[in-house]
Design a protein that fits this description.
The structure holds 2 protein chains of 2 kinds. In chain A, 36% of the residues lie in helices and 14% in strands. Chain A is built from 17 helices and 17 strands. In chain B, 29% of the residues lie in helices and 22% in strands. In chain B, the strands form 6 sheets. Chain B has an 8-stranded parallel β-barrel with strand order 3-4-7-8-9-10-15-16, surrounded by 8 helices. Chain B has a 4-stranded antiparallel β-sheet with strand order 5-6-14-11, with no helix packed on it. The chains are: A alpha/beta, B alpha/beta. The interface between A and B is medium-sized, with 15 and 13 residues.
Chain lengths: 427, 424
């Protein structure tokens, strides 16, 4: 449990107001129940959004939640972390007609949260088919894959390098998006399907090898994410004031005492994605005076969504564009045209695949630009080795994309091993 | 500014908006508040013989739709449960304090001449402007041979109306029940009995919903329920049709009508008046939002009349009646087809699926530059209006087509085996 001191708890609490039943009903009634709805197309996991919203408005919350969770077992996290303003809500026809989309994310959160309160465990492993699959990485892709495999009757062993499962849900998402230890509660729900065993502190390449797993299991799924941090390649990058944002966010997520997180007066964040925004807002919320995000190109090139950038501004974060870093000194960062004073400098310029963990297989697996290549069934160039999530470089680096790829890879594994058409999850 | 004064069967009021006989008009307290708010008149909640009736607790049920409260409403309340003398005294006081407002007294007593004669004398003493015979309530009182039990038998309507006309100088309004098959029959009976006006519709017999936990109809009274009278916005279409039937019937046309049934705003009222109503009566809307709604009712009606250059209610009353026809008088050569205004379309696909699943497959669905595009297939469109009705942004219009063909009703259509022979 991420214990929080009361003051910190206030500033770090969830940014969205939760719906109660009245608000949910009112919002659900705004949905037009479109035919061939654009929101479904926009959802990477293809949740039947009009259907689940109609079920909310008709008082069938169980049905609504199961519509969501059948398509996306991490519907709870995605409702909190998805950039809905670029996905389902951007596609909503009400966005087009009145610039106020149905707040699909909020409704999804409502439906899933209400359902989780019932403690019902609706998913059950199918009759075991005798086959075992290894999943490497207990992040969104790995857990989604494991869950789908269980529904198809496989026994699944999940190997996780960290102390806790969850991947970026547990270690990466901004704490104000995922409060109250939600990641672990969701994992508990996912595991209730049965047939999944997670081993924590088991790191690929250190505690076991891919070659060993291939021999022991019918198939292997790589959900290993991107664990190497890109480097700036400028002088001063090795100074102690230069910190990797992803690692630091994990520290914030795991600390038992937020007061012990070191926060300086002047902070510079280098990067233009949602990670840069996350660390900037978190440091601001933790008490930093001046937090500046510096991005090397123009605002239009930033990969952080408009919504995220606005959130950063609202929290008092300064955003400077067209700032190419030249050199880091003990006083701060020298950019090509200006210099910023900083005691902490966060690098948020992306991550890449760590191929070394694959050991002797690293030479054999096809990869491109630091990402594992897969076919349409998410199988890699290695026989019966599948992959999904950030490490594949397909689609955006989002929880929802990882969940979908894990699910599709499970169906790909089933097709390969059992020669079946894509299986139907059994409730 | 348009003149909203209203006259029906000799009863005058400063505007045509009356509160119908119902809970809002049960006491002086409520009626005073209504008149202060600006209502033109009231029909006092039905008086009966002493001892007063006893009402149940849990009296109303509602029908909500997509988050909208009280689209429909029903009640199982009976007539006034206060002693007759108190009601009469209060009516007299009200009429004295508000002489310019219409005060009509609704009555319901057993079906014998003496009972009616007796109560009419008492009402006359209040100086009320008229009486309304409640032949409509479908619940409770009907089990005792009153209300709709009278209104469903044309001979009784005629008989009681005649008694009342014989025993009072006051104008007699007969309130009709919709719980019959052809409203013209009771209306003709009222006219034959000498009625000065008819009021319609009273409530429709209904079970408003079933409580699925208790397994009993709502409103639930100690685990049980009963059928009640249905009203509110949902019943307006039924009322409009009944009003139109009476307005265009050869026997009853010209019989003054006080329109009732789901009237919630000035537009509803104007629609009833366009079909011939002289005054309109409101209940559910007032029970839902309070008496203040009268402000927009009069203001809205007045503004609309000004915009249309109608100076008084007479100027537009009944204008729609000649256009209400039997189906077989409609032009079968009239043609209209849908048109989708592409720049306003939001690609929700509701027109497409409605037409594809349930109508004539005349909306096409294409993807152009990864954008959906819905278009009408003109040759397939029968002009049913469905797509235009379901479109949430109203970007579909129905466009009348010039066919060059002559007026052709069913009575003259070649497919009609009973067609009149047309001389060529």
């Amino acid at each position: 449990m991420n214990a929080m001191d009361s003051d910190y708890e206030k500033v770090f609490c969830s940014i969205a107001d939760d719906f109660d039943v009245k608000k949910a009903m009112r919002e659900a009634n705004r949905c037009y129940y479109c035919y061939d709805a654009p929101c479904i197309t926009a959802c990477p996991t293809g949740i039947d959004i009009p259907s689940f919203i109609r079920k909310i408005s008709n008082g069938n919350n169980r049905g609504a939640a199961l519509d969501i969770l059948s398509a996306n077992i991490m519907g709870g996290t995605c409702a909190r972390a998805c950039p809905v303003e670029t996905l389902c809500e951007a596609a909503c026809v009400r966005e087009k007609s009145e610039k106020e989309p149905v707040t699909i994310g909020q409704l999804q959160k409502y439906a899933v949260d209400e359902f989780l309160k019932t403690d019902e465990k609706p998913f059950r492993q199918a009759k075991p088919n005798g086959l075992k699959v290894a999943v490497i990485g207990a992040g969104p892709a790995g857990l989604s894959c494991a869950h789908q495999l269980s529904l198809l009757g496989y026994d699944v062993s999940v190997f996780e390098a960290q102390e806790k499962p969850g991947g970026l849900n547990e270690y990466g998402l901004a704490p104000y998006k995922l409060t109250n230890n939600f990641a672990q509660k969701e994992i508990e729900f996912i595991l209730s399907v049965g047939g999944i065993k997670i081993e924590n502190n088991k790191k690929l390449g250190r505690d076991f090898t891919l070659t060993e797993l291939k021999a022991k299991y019918s198939a292997v799924f790589l959900g290993i994410g991107l664990t190497n941090v890109n480097s700036l390649g400028i002088p001063g990058e090795d100074l102690p004031s230069v910190i990797d944002a992803v690692t630091f966010i994990a520290k914030i997520r795991q600390t038992k005492d937020l007061q012990k997180i070191p926060v300086t007066q002047n902070i510079v964040v280098i990067g233009g994605g949602n990670t840069a925004v996350d660390i900037a807002i978190e440091m601001k919320k933790l008490g930093a005076d001046n937090v500046t995000i510096v991005y090397r190109r123009g605002l239009e090139n930033m990969s952080a969504t408009h919504h995220e950038i606005e959130l950063a501004k609202k929290n008092g974060v300064l955003i400077k564009t067209n700032g190419v870093p030249k050199k880091i000194t003990k006083d701060g960062v020298e950019f090509e045209t200006f210099t910023l004073r900083a005691e902490q400098i966060f690098k948020a310029i992306g991550q890449k695949l760590n191929l070394e963990v694959l050991g002797s297989e690293a030479q054999l697996i096809e990869n491109k630009q630091g990402k594992v290549l897969v076919n349409s069934d998410f199988e890699t160039s290695l026989k019966n080795v599948f992959a999904g999530g950030d490490c594949t470089g397909i689609g955006e680096d989002l929880t929802v994309t990882a969940v979908q790829q894990g699910k599709l890879a499970a169906l790909g594994i089933h097709k390969k091993l059992k020669g079946d058409k894509r299986g139907q999850p059994n409730l | 500014m348009a003149n909203l004064t209203c006259e029906i069967a000799g009863v005058k009021s400063p505007n045509p908006f009356w509160l119908a006989s119902a809970p809002p008009t049960d006491k002086k307290f409520n009626v005073e508040r209504a008149f202060k708010a600006g209502w033109g008149g009231v029909v006092w909640k039905t008086l009966g013989e002493d001892p007063p009736v006893v009402n149940v607790s849990s009296r109303y049920g509602g029908v909500d739709y997509n988050g909208m409260k009280v689209m429909g409403f029903n009640n199982i309340e009976l007539i006034t449960d206060r002693p007759l003398e108190i009601n009469l005294r209060e009516i007299k006081e009200i009429k004295k304090e508000w002489p310019d407002r219409a005060v009509i007294v609704s009555l319901m007593v057993p079906c014998n001449e003496e009972s009616w004669k007796k109560i009419l004398k008492k009402v006359e003493d209040t100086n009320a402007d008229g009486v309304e015979l409640n032949f409509g309530c479908p619940h409770g009182m009907s089990e005792r041979g009153m209300g709709s039990a009278v209104g469903q038998v044309p001979e009784y309507i005629e008989m009681v109306t005649r008694w009342c006309k014989a025993h009072t100088r006051m104008p007699v309004f007969v309130k009709l029940t919709p719980n019959i098959t052809d409203v013209r029959i009771p209306a003709r009976a009222a006219l034959k009995g000498g009625a000065d006006a008819v009021s319609l519709i009273n409530t429709i017999n209904s079970i408003v919903s079933v409580d699925l936990d208790v397994m009993a109809p709502r409103p639930v009274v100690g685990g049980k329920g009963t059928h009640g009278g249905y009203c509110g916005p949902a019943v307006k279409p039924i009322a409009l049709n009944m009003v139109a039937e009476i307005a265009r019937d050869k026997d009853t046309k010209g019989l003054p009508i006080s329109g009732i049934g789901g009237i919630s705003d000035w537009r509803d009222a104007a629609e009833f008046m366009s079909l011939g109503c002289r005054s309109v009566q409101v209940c559910t809307a007032a029970m839902h939002f309070g008496f203040k709604i009268i402000e927009d009712m009069t203001d809205g009606l007045s503004n609309w009349m000004d915009a249309k250059n109608y100076r008084s209610l007479n100027d537009f009353r009944g204008l729609a009646i000649p256009n209400v026809k039997n189906w077989n008088e409609l032009d079968l050569n009239f043609k209209t087809i849908a048109h989708i205004e592409q720049k306003d379309c939001i690609q929700c696909g509701l027109c497409y699926v409605a037409c594809e699943d349930t109508s004539h497959q005349s909306v096409s669905k294409k993807t152009v530059n990864s954008q959906k595009k819905y278009e009408i297939i003109d040759e397939e469109c029968v002009g049913c209006n469905l797509c235009a009705l379901v479109c949430p942004v109203e970007c579909i219009t129905m466009v009348t087509q010039e066919t060059g063909k002559p007026f052709l009703p069913w009575t003259e259509h070649p497919n009609n085996p009973l067609r009149k022979s047309v001389s060529v």
